[in-house]
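Reading a protein record of the kind used here takes only a little practice. Think of the row as the fold of the chain written in a discrete alphabet. With that in mind, consider the following protein and its fold in token form:
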Amino acid sequence: ENGQLDPSAYRPFAAALGALVILFVIGSALGTQRVALRLAAEHPAGAARDDGGLLRALSRAVRSPSFRALFSSILVMSTYNGVQGALALHMNTYFWRLPPGEVQWVFYAAMIGFMLGVPLARPAARRLDKKAAYVGSIAGAVGFGVGPTVLRLLDLAPPNGAPELLALLIAAAFASGVIGSVSVVVSAAMVADLADEYDFEHRGRPEGLFFGVVAFCRKASLGVGGAVAGVVIDVIRFPQKADPSAVSAVALERLGITYGPLTAAVVFCGMLLMIPYALSRGRQAAINKALEVRA
């Protein structure tokens, strides 16, 4: 029996995931507390220099073209991830006709690829500059993520049930995870650069505010992406609670076009928002030098 189509299985599944999230949040907080205390000791007046409050700090930040560019692109990418994540159930169940055991292998490939790709972020940023590494990794991750779907729409992918198809999906998920992890790590470094720019211009370091806004935007846009996916399912008139073997080829084609070329096109257009981002390697080095002199 396909547990993905059993609504009663999702309540304990969600509870287990919620418990894991709580454990990881607590572990992360405890693991970084020592570093946070050390940074607070090194910069005891860092936050106090900006006495305008959080709202004023945020108002100043959004005046920066680089700030607006990065946060807008994060919103677009997180919304894309929400849409893809919500549609993945339909793709795996109906489009690819994967049994639950094979779906797990695809998920594991993406997760392992993400972990293995994290160490690549630093050399990628050094070689390409952070902006180029960020945009390039998003393009690569999206390309590999939707690549198998595009191949199927072009009748170039192996048929459902073939071992070659599972191998293709696993390889694409792994590559997407490796490349996509670079954008996650580099974007965090870019947020820190924005904090340096803010300190240079306004004498204050609202890192906590910036990273908090990023975290909120990611989670909120993921939720929005899930809602958008639900609307999309209605718009393309995909059958509800249908047997996978009974779904028409037209409905599957609409699902594939939405999951693949359409969402990828939205992301690639969204990356144009990064054009105004101006914190190049040279600009960042100049800011850091000025901050060192001022300190």
